[in-house]
Amino acid sequence: MTQPVDDPVVLFERVGEVAVLRLHRPDRLNAFTVRMRRELEAAFDRCDADDEVRAVVLTGSGRAYCAGADLGAGGETFVAEPVDGGVPPDEGGLASLRIFRSTKPVVVAVNGPAVGVGVTSTLPADVRIASETARFGFVFTRRGLVPEACSSWFLPRIVGIATALEWTLSGRLIDAEEALAKGLVREVVPQERVVERGIELACGLVSGTAPVSVALTRRMLWSMLGAEGPEVAHLVESRGIYERGRSADIREGVEAFLAKREPHFVDRVSDGLPDLFGQ
After folding, report:
1. How far apart are CA 55 and CA 7, in angstroms?
2. What is the DSSP code string of the chain?
3. How far, in Å, CA of 264 to CA of 209, rounded?
4. For residue 73, what pLDDT band results from cuts at 50, 70 and 90?
5. Are 236 and 223 in contact (CB under 8 A)?
6. pTM higher than 0.85 for the full model?
7. Which of 124, 216, 115, 217 is nearest to 167 (CA)?
8. What span, in angstroms and rounded, lies between the C-alpha atoms of 233 and 204?
9. Order of strands, edge to edge, in the sheet holding 106-110?
10. Closest CA to 134 of 188, 71, 184
11. Under a CB-based contact definition with an 8 Å cutoff, are residues 10 and 23 in contact?
12. So what's the pLDDT on residue 85?
């Protein structure tokens, strides 16, 4: 069934300082399409541009989070034409990279089954939680594919190489408790509370914090996973301390602490972030 043109497949809702993005093809278990990727990217662009949005929660409509790629085209689903004579970019990878580049913390509230790109595209998030009904499947070898959505980079860093290999080679389904035990998700909650809990966690990440410092910290920690050694981190952190040390935020943060009051940070993410990586 084709989604009507004017019917969005990614819903946007504001709950205070949190933007809730909901994958919305419930009749297809929120199966992933090119249109969904584009709307997801647009939603993250909207969040990054709005300084009133401090964090993002991703979830799904209906009983599933995302059943993976829409297989409506059958065996031709993954056939793609070259782009400018080269390999076309993986659509799931484009979604993952956009989430990775978010300047706001991202929490995924996995409300039900998350399979294929439905799980791999959650890996760039900062926190994942799952409902008791959630199931995860890195099923690519069972479809004749290989992992995508940058998961060969993200997954071993989250759960370790041994677990990543077991899950991706076997392609078997993983229940919420195993996902919790291996560190894929932070906690498991009743299905009716998963979005509410996701919003609570998102608020906890940004309450009383400086938006620019949060954005830079997120970028620094992800980037340092591939650093050659602590000297690289020292250089990046030194640049960060230098840049933030001259900001209005640092004065406000210190003065608020000394006065035992809540800080009111004024620096805005939308004004741009300093380059700490010498690029």
Report:
1. 25
2. -PPPTTS-SEEEEEETTEEEEEE--GGGTT-B-HHHHHHHHHHHHHHHH-TT--EEEEEESTT-SB-SB--TTGGGTT----BTTBPPPPHHHHHHHHHHT-SS-EEEEE-S-EETHHHHTTTTSSEEEEETT-EEE--GGGTT----TTHHHHHHHHH-HHHHHHHHHH--EEEHHHHHHTTSSS-EE-GGGHHHHHHHHHHHHHTT--HHHHHHHHHHHHHHTT-SSHHHHHHHHHHHHHHHHTSHHHHHHHHHHHTTS-------GGG-----S--
3. 9
4. low
5. yes
6. yes
7. 115
8. 26
9. 10-15, 18-23, 55-60, 106-110, 127-131, 188-189
10. 188
11. yes
12. 76
Handedness of CA 238, 269, 15, 195 (dihedral sign): negative
Alpha-carbon distance of 112 to 194, in angstroms, equals 10
Which amino acid is present at 38? R
The owner of tokens 């990440």 is: 205
Which has the closest alpha carbon to 115: 154, 65, 73? 65
Q: Hey, what's the torsion of the CAs at 192, 193, 198, 199, to 10 degrees? A: 100
Measured between alpha carbons, how far is 236 from 180 in angstroms, rounded to an integer?
32
Q: How many CA atoms lie within 13 A of 29 on its CB side?
A: 18
pLDDT of the residue at 5? 53
Q: Which two tokens stand for residue 193?
A: 């509370």
13-33 pLDDT, tens digit each:
999 999 999 999 999 999 999
- How far apart CA 16 and CA 23 sit, in angstroms, is 20
26-49 mean pLDDT:
97
Beta bridge partners, 66, equal 114
Q: CA-CA distances (angstroms) from residue 263 to 60, 66, 160?
A: 34, 39, 38
Closest-CA residue to 109 (of 130, 133, 135):
130
Which pair of tokens denotes residue 178? 């195993």
Q: Residue 264: which residues within 8 A CB-CB, separation 6 or more? A: 252, 256
